[in-house]
């Protein structure tokens, strides 16, 4: 049964610390030498980084979660992108110069921040060779990373898994077998305009959430019959707000980020629920002839507004970053979720880990039933 269970980790920048708290709650119900209870892991953006880290420790669930928690609890912005005044000004100067040059002369990608520190961190912390070994031993069936291809405007899922898993091609999306590495993770987490796109093979790729039409298709193509989703949607998005004036640039940008990271996943979950309900109405014998199957799902998402939590720790964001965001209207009182995506600081990340743990414990009976935990 475990081989048919998938873990889906959505994107959301610094919000992905929440996922670690959920995993921390689950792992305590397994023996210390137990492997991961989900043999299929699918990640997008920051969720792809978390998922890959767990996949490299598939044979020891406790060790994987413990190492991931240590990284997030010791995070700072400068480990993800250059966040000092010299680093930011140098990068923006390079971007300005690039804009004056012919595209054939300067082909470097444009972005608001330089995320070379994240590349160095991933190269240091993640041993990609472990993925193949865990697949060969049976501790892991498949790992996938969702990206968006700017050449074709398609959602491309790069996966590493058992040989019996076939590539797939659908309208505006597909799955390609690959030997995953740091560049795939950087591509999947390259938030548009914020971080630079990444060249993979002959294409240019960015954040997997941008062109993602069916986030749940990847685990299903990889063989999942049960899917656990850790959704990073914040209550901030669902609350009605009375605006006294036109929304500022920061507010609109925050809404765009919320839409990119949450809307398609929620729509896909609704679609899957409708398919399951429809299949329940069909005779069991006739159901066997259909190209559809019922998928059991478990969804865990924040019980508190992540944007509001971010405001409490806003002053801990590097001064250079706060100064740079101020012209578009971002400050501690701003009604925008931008800070919640960029606040890679210890206190904020720790708060999200604690929230994820608490939320998972509130659903622990459902989690135990889903994973058949005695």
Major β-sheet profile: 10 strands, mixed
Low-confidence stretches: none
Q: Which percent range fits the helix content?
A: 40-55%
The overall strand count is 10
SSE order, as H and E? EHEHHHHHEEEEHEEHEHHHEHHHHH
Question: Tally the helices: what do you get?
Answer: 16
What is the arithmetic mean of pLDDT? 88
Distance between the termini: 15 Å
- Percentage of residues in DSSP E strands: 5-15%
By helix and strand content, what is the structural category?
Answer: alpha/beta
Q: How much is the radius of gyration in Å?
A: 20 Å
Q: Categorize the overall geometry.
A: globular
Q: Could you walk me through the main structural features you see in this protein, from its secondary elements to its overall organization?
A:
- Strand 5 and strand 6 form a beta hairpin.
- The chain is built from 16 helices and ten strands.
- The relative contact order is 0.17.
- Helix content is 44%, strand content 14%.
- Strands 1, 2, 3, 4, 5, 6, 7, 8, 9 and 10 form a ten-stranded mixed β-sheet that branches.
- With 374 residues, it is an alpha/beta fold.
- Helix 1 (17-27) runs antiparallel to helix 3 (61-73).
In short:
With 374 residues, the chain is of the alpha/beta class.
Q: Keywords, please?
A:
single chain; 374 residues; alpha/beta; 10-stranded mixed sheet; 16 helices; globular
Architecture blueprint of SSEs:
Blueprint: E1 5-9, H1 17-27, E2 40-44, H2 46-55, H3 61-73, H4 85-100, H5 116-125, H6 129-137, E3 142-149, E4 154-161, E5 168-170, E6 173-177, H7 182-188, E7 198-200, E8 203-207, H8 217-221, E9 226-230, H9 235-238, H10 249-280, H11 284-287, E10 296-300, H12 306-312, H13 319-325, H14 338-342, H15 346-362, H16 364-370
Parallel strand pairs: 1-2, 1-9, 2-3, 4-6, 9-10
Antiparallel strand pairs: 3-4, 3-8, 5-6, 7-8
Helix pairs in contact: 1-3, 1-15, 2-3
